[in-house]
Amino acid sequence: MKTRGVCTLPKRIAVLAGCIVLWSHCCILPVLGEKLHPAEQATLPDGARFKREIEAFLSSDATNSPAKKAILLIGSSSIRMWTNVASDFPKHRVINRGFGGSDISDSIAYSDRIIFPYKPRLIVFYAGGNDINGGKTPEVVLDDFKRFTAKVHQSLPRAKIAYISIAGNPSRWAQVDRVRKANSLIAQFAKSDKRLAYINVFDPMLGEDGLPRPNIFLKDRLHMNEQGYAIWKRVVAPFLGSPDRK
User: What Rg value do the Cα atoms of the chain yield, rounded?
Assistant: First the structure.
């Protein structure tokens, strides 16, 4: 018995040491200031960004499961507020999963919950404006979009992604140079993969004076009214592919 105990003691010590290393990595390093990527922060269970919105989507999915192989619209408030998108495109099966105030990284963070389960054939994506408004450079916006496309295509290699350009609006017009640069970078990147497309809504939303049309926005001068969405409907429609409804 003594011999057996001596033989197993090194194994016990090794297991204990491994547990200590794992515990220190999971618990101590974050406390000491190890930085997490924004997308990882958004997936943390406590204080997760947009937790209420995502849980509402999941609750809806549990009682009314969306069709597979449909068109998924995802992104920030301009998607969320497109409440009549299904009636705008009656010949297509459409899922709206917009959540206001979100950055590109937030859609990455919640892709396992509100993208992959639907197995969409096409993702129409609008995000980036909040990123620019939050201080991100156009280059960072492009990098985040590349991460978004990479994560989507890792799980859904045949899915197409159509990126709606960041729209110019009166309330954030001071940021227009960075918006234009981000749009240009993403438009160029979209040419590198036949599964990607760039939808230019920026130019159609401008008047003859080169400024945003004031009559297509709500009083906040940021979000669109029905006239603004009529422009989006017209510009987005050609990218949706063949009808999947009679």
Answer: 23
- What is the total count of domains within the chain? 2
Q: pLDDT tens digit string along 107-165?
A: 999 999 999 999 999 999 999 999 999 999 999 999 999 999 999 999 999 999 999 99
- Matching residue, tokens 């507020």: 81
Block residue for tokens 């200590």: 20
Question: Are 113 and 57 within 8 A, CB to CB?
Answer: yes
For 119, other C-beta atoms within 10 Å of its C-beta total 16
**What does the block give as tokens for 44?**
């943390």
54 and 127, same domain (yes or no): yes
Residue 12 has what pLDDT? 54
- Local structure of 96: helix, strand or coil: strand
Q: Write the burial class of residue 203 (CB in 10 Å: 0-12 exposed, 13-18 middle, 19+ buried).
A: exposed
Full domain range(s) for residue 18: 2-34
Report the distance separating Cα 45 and Cα 246, nearest Å. Answer: 42
Question: pTM for the whole thing?
Answer: 0.81
